Amino acid sequence: MIGVQRVEVEGKRFVFLPEVEYERLCRGAGEAVAMDDEEMPALPKPDKHGRFPALQYARISLARDLIRDRKGVGLSQQRLAGLAGVRQETLSRIETGRHTASSRTVDKVMRAIETERRRLRSRKSR
Questions:
Q1: Could you give the CA distance from residue 75 to residue 87 in angstroms, rounded to a whole number?
Q2: What are phi and psi of 115, to 5 degrees?
Q3: Contact of 33 with 77, CB cutoff 8 Å
Q4: Residues with Cβ < 8 Å from 30, sequence gap 6 or more?
Q5: What's the total number of domains in the chain?
Q6: What is the CATH number of the domain that holds 15?
Q7: Distance between CA atoms of residues 28 and 45, nearest Å
Q8: Beta-carbon contacts of residue 22 (< 8 Å; ≥ 6 apart)
């Protein structure tokens, strides 16, 4: 039995549970697990006019999404690279946010993640 604490805020009920249980539930659903910002590449800071460098922001945003999704389905970089048909080094460079990936490479990686997500869901439904 999981120890759960319930709280009501503005008429809505919320449940608090241990983080490890939350992560287990996310993985079981094939969903990305929320990660601490220190585990992710940092988003760029705006310049003095409040503008963000678009390309750098896009790279890092993609990197953060890939890391969340990859970890959400429980894949290592090596395993995901193998499933996607790309080199592990390529995936590593994309996940740092310092490399611009081609749309073809991103499509391969995202298809592999989605295939793994479907596989996990079908295993759960058996």
A1: 15
A2: -60, -45
A3: no
A4: 72, 73, 116, 117, 118, 120, 121
A5: 1
A6: 1.10.260.40
A7: 35
A8: 33
This prediction has a pTM of 0.73
Q: How far apart are CA 104 and CA 85, in angstroms?
A: 11
Query: What span, in angstroms and rounded, lies between the C-alpha atoms of 44 and 56?
Result: 7
Tens digits of residue pLDDT in 96-122: 998 999 999 999 999 999 999 999 888
Q: Which residues contact 21 (CB under 8 A, 6 or more apart)?
A: 2
- Domain, as residue range, for 56: 5-125
Is residue 91 a contact partner of residue 106, using CB atoms and an 8 Å limit?
A: no
Task: Decide if 23 contacts 68 (C-beta within 8 A).
Answer: no
* Per-residue pLDDT tens digits for 17-38: 887 788 777 767 766 666 666 6
- DSSP character string of 32-90: PPP--GGGSPPPPPP-TTS---HHHHHHHHHHHHHHHHHHHTT--HHHHHHHHTS-HHH
Cα–Cα dist 27/72, whole Å? 6
